[in-house]
Known about the structure:
- This protein is mainly beta.
- The chain has one domain (44-275).
- It is built from four helices and 15 strands.
- It has helices at 28-34, 170-177, 179-182, 237-243, and strands at 50-51, 59-67, 70-84, 87-96, 101-110, 113-124, 130-137, 142-147, 154-159, 187-195, 199-216, 219-231, 247-252, 258-265, 272-275.
- It has a 15-stranded antiparallel beta sheet that branches.
- It is globular and about 50 Å long.
Amino acid sequence: MPVYRGLPARPVIGTVPLTLMRHPPATLTLAAGLLVLPAAAAARSPGDPVRLVWVEGDVAGMSTIYGPDGGEPIGFIEYRQTRHGDRLSSVRVAHFRDGSSDEDSAEARVEGTLEALAGRTIIREADGVPAVDVTIDVAGSRIAASWGRGARRRTLEERVALPKGTYWGPLIFIVLKNFDANAEDGRLVFRTVAPTPRPRVFDMELAGGPPAALQRAGARLATRRFQLGPTIHWTVDPILRLVLPSATFWMLPGEPPALARFAGPRNYAREEIVIQ
Length: 276
C-alpha cells in the first residue's frame, strides 16, 4: 500500500472535536425541550475501529505487479491470511524483479469490528538489506523503527497513542471491503503508520467514487473507483493533494467486493505501480 514522503515532522492529526456549550438561563427551556428529541448517532472518529460486514477467514493468493504503463510484469505479490478464533494474521509481500521487496504484516482482532493489534513493515533493497524496518504495537502504544544504511542508519523507539482503528498494509484492503458500512458522506477516515522513511502517524481518507468501466484482458469490467490519500484538515487537504501522491482502487461488486486493480506509489520512493 502507498505511503508518503514530505509530511510535516509533527502533522496536525484528526478533526476538530465538537464541544457542548453551557446554555444561559434564557435558553434552559429550549434546551430541556431538545432533550426529548431522538439522539443523533455519534460521528465516527478516525481512530474508531471499522464495523465488519464480511467474515474474514483463511486466504492465500498471488497478484501481478506492472509498471504504470502496463507491459511486462515487474514483480508479483503473495498474500497469506489466517484466522484463529477472533485473531486474524495477514502477510503481504511484494517481490520486484530487481530483487527488492516490500513486506507488510498485521495482527488484528475481528469480532464485529476490525481492531489492529500489531504488525511490521520491512522495505528491502535489491541486495536484500532492509532500508526500512518498522514495528507497530497498537496494543502497547509503541513504535520501533530503523531506516537508512551504514553510518546513515537511524533508529527510533517511542510511545505513541495508537487507537484500535489504526490500519496499514493488508488491513487497508479489509477497510475498503467494508467501506459502505462505515463511510459518512462517501468518505472514510482512519489512522495509519507509514514510513517516509521515518515512521509517521497521520490520517488517511478513503473516498468512494462513481461506477467506472475497466478494460482488462479484452473484457469490460463494471467496477467502482476509490481514491486514498492523506488528510489533515479540509482547509489544507486540496494543497496536500497537489504535492502528495494518491492511490486508486477499482473494486468489483460482490459479496464480498473484490479488488480488480490498484494504481499508485509503491512506497515513499514514489515509484508508480499497477497491481491486477
